[in-house]
Design goal:
Structural class: alpha/beta
Number of strands: 17
Shape: globular
Radius of gyration: 21 Å
Order of helices and strands: EEEHEHEHEEEEHEHHEHEHEEEHHEHEH
Oligomer: single chain
Strand content: 15-25%
Length: 354
């Protein structure tokens, strides 16, 4: 019988903390090789992928370390520079930090069976691979919109806030871009894609917008009716929540929908790069991507996977409305602290403006 999964909270180095979950090898061998994963994906969401990988690799144990995106970056760099060895695969939603790891030589080339067929926007030099397709969406409380449709574009979003601002004051939410990496990235893309984005931010500020660093904090309040609208919320979490709660509705903005991806790479300092590539290969495979689409409610990137919850299907239906963020050094622009602070300062000023 398979040993029970062991989960412990480990203090790695102040202030970094990781939830470490150990998945013993399915063949029961006590001396099995161990794949080390650093990931920002919550353990319950990651488990179906790990289960699938271990069914295909019953002789491999998995040490899964659930970390913040900045901690993944910091640990890979620090451990590699110290020559201590680091994770065999790093999987993170911080697209900019993952690309920086690859650009700065902390990720090794991984030529895999699907490398040549992977979408060009999702593969940077066979080193950093986008593995998910996750839109930024509007989320709304369905009972609050039983008589009128929810906003479907940013212009409609602003019109709603201007006409209904008094009624919904303090019941609008979005990410705090100073504390949320994905929130900052969505805002940076908005600035590039939508010339009038600051009217949206000013309208949210006038409506008493509440700012949060996590998707769950916003979705919980949408579900129970404390909030009526959420702006630029990560679609994968919203879809998972909506599947469990009929009061949560989702709109993919019709003017344009930014799509982010979680990026996987094999660090140069990996203890077992062959295991890292084996896990990355499973994650890219039709089997792994199907598990991700069906069980994690995250859209698949693999071109061979069919069905509703796939990049292929979404692009067929929505076409140019979708704006995937390409895996490229362009992602590192806002890692420049001066540019980052300028955007944050403008954001805060717009929220405070009359």
């Amino acid at each position: 019988m398979r040993l029970a999964i062991l989960t412990v909270l480990v203090c790695l180095s102040a202030p970094t903390r990781a939830e470490v979950t150990l998945f013993p090898a399915l063949d029961g061998a006590s001396n099995a090789r161990t794949l080390v994963v650093y990931s920002s994906l919550d353990v319950p969401l990651a488990k179906p992928m790990i289960d699938g990988f271990q069914r295909a690799n019953p002789d491999v144990a998995v040490r899964y370390e659930d970390l913040l995106t900045t901690d993944i970056y910091d640990r890979v760099v620090a451990e590699t520079d110290a020559g201590k060895g680091t994770a065999d695969i790093a999987f993170s939603s911080a697209m900019d930090l993952q690309v920086k790891l690859a650009n700065d030589g902390y990720a090794q080339e991984s030529r895999l069976p699907l490398s040549d067929r992977w979408p060009r926007w999702a593969n940077w030099r066979d080193t950093a691979y986008a593995l998910t397709f996750e839109p930024a969406v509007f989320v709304y409380h369905k009972p609050s919109f039983k008589d009128v449709p929810p906003p479907a574009t940013r212009g409609q979003f602003v019109d709603f806030l201007r006409t209904q601002g008094d009624k919904v004051y303090g019941r609008i939410a979005t990410y705090d871009i100073e504390r949320s990496g994905v929130g900052f990235m969505f805002m940076a893309r908005d600035q590039e894609q939508y010339p009038d984005i600051w009217s949206v931010i000013r309208a949210m500020g006038a409506a008493g917008v509440k700012l949060y660093s996590t998707s769950s904090a916003i979705l919980e309040r949408i579900a129970d009716g404390r909030f009526v609208l959420g702006y630029n919320i990560l679609g994968s979490y919203a879809a998972d929540w909506a599947a469990r709660d009929p009061d949560v509705g989702i709109v993919l903005p019709k003017d344009y929908t930014v799509v982010m991806s979680r990026i996987g790479l094999v660090p140069t300092g990996s203890h077992s790069p062959d295991l890292g590539r084996r896990y990355l290969e499973y994650f890219m495979s039709a089997e792994g991507q199907t598990v991700m689409a069906r069980e994690l409610e995250i859209a698949a990137v693999n071109p061979d996977v069919s069905g509703e919850n796939t990049a292929n299907r979404m692009q067929e239906v929505l076409g140019a409305q979708l704006r995937p963020v390409p895996v490229s050094p362009g992602l590192m622009v806002y890692l420049d602290q001066v540019k980052r602070m300028r955007l944050i300062e403008r954001w805060n000023a717009a929220l405070r403006s009359p």
